[in-house]
Amino acid sequence: MHTLCARGTMKPEITAAVGFLSRFLRIKGHVNDRQLQTFSASLQDILSEQYKHHWFPDRPCKGSGYRCIRINHKMDPLVGQAGQRIGLTIQQLYMLLPSELTLWVDPFEVSYRIGEDGSICVLYESQPSVSGAGAPAMDMASSPSGSSSSSVGALVDSHISCKEELMVLGRTSLSKTYMMTVSG
Question: Which has the least CB within 10 A, 47, 106, 110, 176?
Fold first, then answer.
C-alpha cells in the first residue's frame, strides 16, 4: 500500500474515509467480518494508488475534485471496484450506501455531505506540521457543539476549506455552525 507520497502522508485521511464507508456496510449487516476487512483493505489500496500523484498538503484544495468520492445516480467507480472484490454488485452497494453521498478526501480534512443540499460534516481534521505531515486534531463530530480546541479553531479560521470555497462560489455561504431547518 502507498501510505506515503513525495508530499506527505495521506494514510489518516484515507483511513477515515474508508472507515466511514465501511461502517455503512457493517450497519446493514449484509457482509461478514472477513468481507468487511477485505473491502476496507481494498478500498484503502485503491484510494492510495489513485491519489498518490494528486496529494498536495501545501495546497489542499488542489486536486480536491479528483479525490472526491461521489455516489448519486452513478456509483463511484473506486467504491464499486472495492465492492466487487468482495462479491457485491453495484446494485447491492446502492442498497448498502447512501443514495446521495459526497465524500471529500483532502490533506488535513475529510468531510462528507449526504444529500445534495445536506450539511457538510467533518470526519477527520488535522493540522499541518512543520514536517508536512498532519498532526491529528480533535474530531469535530465528537464535540456536541461542533466546535473544537482553540488550536484547531485557529487553523479553521485562518483559511477557507475546499468545501467552504465550493459553497461560497457555488450556491450559498457556509457558516461555522451547521444548522438544518425544516419548513413544512
Answer: 176
DSSP string, 151-177: HHHHHHHHS--HHHHHHHHSSS---SS
10 Å Cβ neighbour count for 161?
Answer: 22
Q: At 91, list the grid cell.
A: 446494485
Contact at 8 Å (CB) between 148 and 45? Answer: no
- State pTM to two decimals: 0.69
CA 60 – CA 83 distance, rounded (Å): 28
CA quadruple 136, 138, 140, 146: dihedral positive or negative?
A: negative
In sequence order, the β-bridge partners of residue 125 are 109
> Which phi and psi angles does 178 have, rounded to 5°?
-80, 125
Question: What are the tens digits of pLDDT across the range 166-179?
Answer: 444 444 333 333 33
Alpha helices in 99-161 (DSSP H): 150-158
pLDDT > 70 in the chain, percent: 66
